[in-house]
Amino acid sequence: MPRRTPPSPGAAARCALLLIDVINDLEFDDGAALLRYARPMARKLAAFKQRARAAGVPVIYVNDNFGRWRSDFRALVRHCLHDRVCGAPIARLLQPQAADYFVLKPRHSGFYCTALEVLLGFLQTRVVILTGLAGDNCVLFTAHDAYMRGFRVVVPRDCVASVTQAGNRGALVHVARYLKADTRASDVIRFEELMEPTQVVNGASTLYEPTEGELSARP
After folding, report:
1. Total structural domains in the chain?
2. What does pTM read for this prediction?
């Protein structure tokens, strides 16, 4: 069978934008608490996603199947949009578009028992931008697995949300310190920089890395 050519737009992109568990009914004990922080996050992420698409960055929805083993991603989208669920406002803000990719995951990490790594390889991705829910859970698990697979990790701090601010803050500090993740706000991240080959000056990458002062001062 002939080898397929990576599709456009976003073909051979160095970076990809992952939206983790944003299609989510939030119908669980902490769902209302998470919605409180997810609403402002989703508005930031919607604008960030629009910029990503304009820059030719592929968008991948990495979503839990929530134990619905006979379902699929489109059915989950319909459920979250139309069934009067807690997470409907987030689903409306971040509704997938026809050109977006999607991967269903059975557990916390987007890489565990999924085709995500194969898809990222197909897109020739080297930098993963992780966003969504929850910052201290599925985003964190996915960030660790991405780092262990050699991807450069970016987690825009205003594009992730958790049940508590403390949990979200702790996760951001963790990924910045231990995974060398770029956790700047979405409005200062430039896709063209992430899509350039990483340059090394005096043994250090020229891509952003936080200082100790920034780590301790993060909100």
Report:
1. 1
2. 0.84
